[in-house]
Each structure stands twice: as structure tokens, then as C-alpha cells.
Design goal:
The structure holds two protein chains of two kinds. Chain A is mostly helical. In chain A, about 80% of the residues lie in helices and about 0% in strands. Chain A contains nine helices and no strands. Chain B folds into two domains: about 200 residues, no CATH class; about 70 residues, no CATH class. A two-stranded antiparallel ribbon of chain B has the order 1-2. The longest helix of chain B is centred in the middle third of the chain and has 32 residues. Classes of the chains: A mainly alpha, B mainly alpha. Chains A and B meet through helix 2, helix 3, helix 5, helix 7 and helix 8 of A and helix 1, helix 3, helix 4, helix 6 and helix 7 of B. Chain A: This is Energy-coupling factor transport system substrate-specific component.
């Protein structure tokens, strides 16, 4: 029962965002016609639901320690690759973690990497959206594994490439909702067009990470997953 | 630089507030920034926020936030000009653009974009204030009372981050000593070199994580409810700031529901001061939000007040 409840809470966190976006575009406005407050309430509620889902799951100290390490490595990856513009392995690390350890672990690694790195780089209005986007990248990789266990190297690279764009689009949501009017597809496309080259660099970097050191990385993670299961 | 938090402890009044009071103050500022769209309200809130940033010694860092905001404001203005058709004062009738339709640049769209840029600067300033006002450990401590596992993951990761960054430097130095030049070669070659670095890093820390887990087992983690010790006390200063923030929020929501603090941009921009402005209401909200700043000022110059709060 607790396990089912944790799954429901976890996945309902993801469900909130598309519903909210559709509501924002439907033309029915809030009291003052502003969606900014609602956007922050929704994103914090989505993250809280997913954290609650993780809380209700049974996790061993090993799982907790591994998630924390992967989150810290993902966060530090943002610094290691700072010399390459918008090329950062955090998305790839969240995806690999989700693929190997499952959707909940993937979410925790992605969201932890975002929050912890911003403790040191500086928190901004983008933090909850980064937490959500990287968390979702990790979780979706876990879903991909259950849907297509033999996705292959190129399939995974394509998935990582797509996430370069998805990540940018999710981050664009806060600026689109908070600062643009009217909220429609045209304005959303205009906001995404403004970030196209940044997103493309991110996507190309993700695919390159996956192709260059994806198999080696996965092998290490699989080894530790196996180690956690047998000891 | 990355071996310590963005936060800097300076022993200031605003930094001494209970994390709950500080978080409520920040949350109220953020809510009001997103609620009101009147330029005067946004300017009032910005002045309070910048004064608070100065009071926590973050003014130099705020200048960096200002630069980011100015860059993003130009994008916001362009997007609004491209997509808004509701403005009446058309400054330039442009060509037809696929997806967006006819490009008409209106004064109202530019004005709306500029005011939204002001809102963006305000939101960035509020986050700048958050960065300098609340120590991350105190927030994580507060969080761990409600969510022990997630709080632990975040605390562990925050502790490990400086170690990971310094280990990156160590591995990089070791690889450089062995002839690896991280700055030479094509992008693909550079990424391959960094890939080796990341693999070593991952292996080292995953091995360490097993030891961390052993230490957690040894401390009986998971055997029952996690112990939680309350180190933070609510003092009179916290009660005063909490009350001022909440009264400001209630006042603001009441006025907002009556239509105050909203500015009509379309079809034609309204007057800056009219019946919907509510100057007295604006001053009331600003006064309530500046209460923690007044206390901060009094705390520094009046030892009696300092001893009482």
C-alpha cells in the first residue's frame, strides 16, 4: 500500500505541469490575469510530491549514499566542464542514474545535482525548474529502461540529445509564464527560439557524452547496482 | 572558490533570523513580485529588496544579477513585441512572419516588456537576498524535520560537493603530470580527456559511498525514526519579522483582490497614477516589508534594542 502510494505521489508530481500549461494556454485567466504565482506554487508542489514519493519508498543506506554521491558528482560536473559553453554532464549523469537505478533514484540524482550546485553557484529563480527538469530527465530514463531495455548506444544518445532540448524548454516555462503575454503556442515558440543555440549546444554535448563515455559509465553504475543488491 | 557556499556569514541581523522567519519574508517578497504588475509597486518592492541585499552585504554580487537581468530583459521585450497584437499605439508596421503573423511593433508591447524586465530584476534580487540571508545548512536542517531521507541525501551531497570539486582538481593535476593536456585538441578530444577524469571521479566516490553507507548502518540508520534536535529558537525578532511579513501578505492580497496594484497595458497603457494605483496601500505594504530592515538598523545602532530582541 505504501509502495503504491509513493508511486502515485511521485508520478502525479509530473502530471501537474502539462495540466497547468494547458490551463495557462486555455485563455481562462487567474484573478488578475497573472500566472506567475500559480507557476511557482505548481512547480514547488510538483517537486514536493515527488520528494514525498521518495520518502515513502523503502531505501537502504547504500541507496541513499549512492544517490547523494551521484548528485554531488552531477553537480560538480557543471564545474568540471565550465570551459565548454553550455556543455555539462549533469543531464547525462541524471539519465544514466535513472536508467540503472530506476525512476525515483534518477529524479533524486537530477534534482539534488541542481539544488546542491546552486548552493555554491548561487540560487536563482531557475533553481526549482532545474530541479524538476533534471529530475524528470532521470525519471524518464528509468521509464525508457522498463519500456525498451535494449535501447542501444545510439538510441540512448538520441534520448540524451532530446533531453538537451526538453531541459531548455522546461526552463523556458518560468520566463514564458512570468514575463510574456499572451500565453499561447506562438509566444512559447518565440521564447524557445531565443534559447535555440544554447539548447542545441546542450543537446549535442549530451549526445557526445553518451557516445564517448556512455558504455563505460553505465558499466560502473551497473557494477555498483549489482554490489548493492548482493551485499 | 567552490569549496564554500555562496552564502557568507557576516554576523548580521538579517542573517541571525530563524530560517522560518527568513523564508517567510523571502516567500512574501516573491509572491508580491509575481502578483503585482504595476511599475510603481515593482519599483517599491525592488527598493526594499536592494536595501535588504545591501544590509546583508551582498551588493557586489547583486551587480552580477543586474547584468543577467538586463540581458534577459532585451529578450523579453523582443518576444513580447513579436507576439502581442493587442497594443493600439503601433510604432512600426512590419512584414508578415510565418507562425507569428504580421509584425506590428506597439508602444504597449515595449512598455509591457520593459515592466516585465523590471519584475525579472526584482525576482533576481529576491533570490540574491536569499543567497546571502539564509545559510544552506539551516534550511536543510529545517527540511530534515519533515523529510528525513531527502534531507539526508541533500545534506550528504552538499557536504561531498567541495570534496568532489577538489578531487577533480587533484585528478586533473595527476593526469596533466602524465602528459594529458586538457586545453589541447579538438572538442571531441577535449571531451574524451574529461571523460577519463569523470570516470576516475565516479569510481572513487562510489567506492567511498559504500563506506558512508557502512557508517550509516553502524549508527543504526533506518532502524527507527530519525532523531531530530532543535537548535534554532524563535526569538522576539523572529516573531516581529514573521508578523510583519504575514500582515504585509494579507494586506497585499486584500488590495490585489480589490484591483489595486494592477496596471492596464492593453489595448492602451493606462496612467501611472490613477484610481487603481492605491498609493496609500502601496506605502502600507512597503512599510510592513521594511520592518525587518528597520529592526536591522536599530539592532546595529542601539545596544538596548539588540539586548531585547
Amino acid at each position: 500500500m505504501k509502495k503504491v502510494l509513493s508511486k502515485i505521489l511521485f508520478w502525479s508530481g509530473f502530471g501537474i505541469i502539462p495540466v497547468f500549461m494547458a490551463a495557462a494556454m486555455s485563455g481562462k485567466t487567474t484573478i488578475s490575469g497573472e500566472w506567475g504565482v500559480a507557476a511557482y506554487i505548481v512547480i514547488f508542489a510538483a517537486i514536493a510530491l515527488m520528494y514525498l514519493g521518495f520518502e515513502l519508498e523503502t531505501s537502504s543506506p547504500r541507496e541513499i549514499a549512492v544517490i547523494a554521491v551521484l548528485g554531488a558528482v552531477g553537480a560538480a560536473g557543471r564545474i568540471a566542464f565550465a570551459a565548454l559553453p553550455n556543455v555539462q554532464p549533469t543531464t547525462f549523469i541524471a539519465i544514466s542514474s535513472g536508467y540503472v537505478f530506476g525512476p525515483t533514484a534518477g529524479f533524486m540524482v537530477g534534482s539534488t545535482a541542481a539544488l546542491v550546485s546552486n548552493f555554491f553557484l548561487g540560487q536563482g529563480p531557475w533553481t526549482p525548474w532545474q530541479m524538476f527538469a533534471w529530475g524528470l530527465a532521470g525519471s524518464s530514463a528509468g521509464m525508457v529502461k522498463s519500456l525498451s531495455p535494449r535501447i542501444g548506444r545510439w538510441g540512448m544518445a538520441f534520448f540524451c540529445l532530446l533531453w538537451g532540448y526538453f531541459f531548455g524548454w522546461i526552463l523556458n516555462l518560468w520566463s514564458w509564464i512570468g514575463f510574456v503575454k499572451p500565453l499561447n503556442w506562438q509566444s512559447f515558440i518565440a521564447v524557445c527560439a531565443a534559447s535555440f543555440w544554447f539548447d542545441t549546444l546542450h543537446a549535442a554535448g549530451n549526445a557526445a557524452f553518451c557516445l564517448l563515455f556512455g558504455p563505460g559509465f553505465m558499466k560502473i553504475l551497473e557494477r555498483f547496482r549489482h554490489k548493492m543488491e548482493v551485499t | 572558490m567552490l569549496d564554500r557556499f555562496f552564502y557568507r556569514e557576516k554576523g548580521l541581523f538579517l542573517q541571525s533570523l530563524h530560517p522560518l522567519s527568513a523564508l517567510v519574508y523571502i516567500a512574501v517578497l516573491l509572491t508580491l513580485a509575481l502578483m503585482f504588475n504595476h511599475p510603481l509597486y515593482l519599483l517599491g518592492l525592488l527598493s526594499i529588496t536592494v536595501a535588504a541585499v545591501k544590509a546583508v552585504g551582498g551588493f557586489d554580487a547583486w551587480k552580477a544579477f543586474l547584468k543577467i537581468s538586463l540581458g534577459a530583459t532585451s529578450v523579453i521585450i523582443i518576444v513580447n513585441v513579436l507576439t502581442v497584437r493587442a497594443g493600439q499605439t503601433v510604432l512600426w508596421g512590419g512584414p508578415h512572419i510565418p507562425v507569428f503573423g504580421r509584425l506590428d511593433v506597439s508602444l504597449e508591447a515595449i512598455l509591457f516588456g520593459a515592466v516585465m524586465g523590471l519584475r525579472l530584476l526584482l525576482i533576481m534580487s529576491i533570490f540574491c537576498l536569499y543567497n546571502f540571508m539564509i545559510h544552506p545548512d539551516r534550511v536543510l536542517d529545517l527540511l530534515s524535520r519533515f523529510s528525513s531521507k531527502s534531507g539526508l541525501v541533500l545534506s550528504l551531497a552538499a557536504r561531498m560537493f567541495p570534496a568532489v570539486v577538489s578531487r577533480i582538481d587533484g585528478i586533473r593535476e595527476a593526469l596533466t603530470a602524465r602528459g594529458v593536456d586538457f586545453n589541447a585538441g579538438t572538442l571531441k578530444e577535449k571531451m574524451s580527456k574529461y571523460a577519463v577524469l569523470m570516470k576516475i571521479l565516479l569510481l572513487t566516490f562510489l567506492e567511498d559511498s559504500m563506506e558512508t553507507a557502512e557508517a550509516m548502518y553502524a549508527r543504526a540508520f533506518g532502524s527507527g525514526r530519525r532523531s531530530c534536535y532543535v537548535r534554532e529558537n524563535l526569538r522576539p525578532r523572529d516573531g516581529a519579522c514573521l508578523a510583519a511579513s504575514l500582515i504585509a501578505l494579507v494586506t497585499a492580497v486584500y488590495g490585489w483582490s480589490k484591483g489595486l496594484g494592477t496596471f492596464g497595458f492593453y489595448p492602451q497603457a493606462g496612467n501611472l497614477i490613477d484610481g487603481r494605483t492605491g498609493i496609500g496601500f502601496l506605502f502600507a505594504v512597503i512599510f510592513l516589508l521594511s520592518f525587518p530592515l528597520l529592526l536591522s538598523w536599530g539592532w546595529h545602532i542601539w545596544p538596548f534594542l539588540k539586548s531585547k530582541i
